[in-house]
Specification:
Layout: H1 2-24, E1 29-33, E2 41-46, E3 49-54, E4 60-67, E5 72-81, E6 92-100, E7 104-111, E8 114-124, H2 126-131
Antiparallel strand pairs: 1-2, 1-8, 2-3, 3-4, 4-5, 5-6, 6-7, 7-8
């Protein structure tokens, strides 16, 4: 009986730890939204800044990111370019990454009592891409 309790505890701990580790790998990088309404938006995230760009309209939304944990963060809109959407400035959105696959994340965002479940595809980590670039031939 003791063996099964230890086994159950170990499995639970390892699953929780691996989920956090997976969330951590999405702190930086480029993403696109999966749903049709948002599929024109490209998200660039690095450290404490996120920039969302609409590829059709050119609208850019800049937000600061405060990481609460590996899988939870708060976005605060700080700047909107190419649109007169100053109502967004200062707006906060609580986001939780709820599921992680190889290059795919599911999230839940909450702002002003409105909950949205969404999905994003991870394109690449711009930091890794820079470091793996081959040197130019001279």
């Amino acid at each position: 009986m003791r063996f099964f309790i230890v086994l159950l505890f170990s499995l639970t701990f390892s699953f929780t730890w691996s989920q956090k580790k997976k969330c951590r790998s999405f702190l930086n990088g480029s993403f696109i939204y999966v749903d049709e309404k948002s599929q024109d938006w490209i998200v660039y995230r690095r450290d404490s800044l996120q920039i969302e760009t609409n590829s059709k309209t050119g609208v850019e939304i800049h937000a600061s990111i405060e990481w609460i944990s590996d899988c939870k963060y708060v976005l605060t809109y700080i700047k909107v370019l190419n649109a007169d959407d100053s109502l967004f400035i200062g707006k906060k959105i609580n986001v939780e990454i709820t599921d992680v696959k190889e290059n795919f994340i599911k999230y839940r965002s909450v702002s002003n009592g409105i909950e949205i479940d969404g999905e994003m595809i991870y394109l690449f980590n711009s930091l890794k891409r820079v470091h793996t670039r081959k040197p130019k031939k001279q």
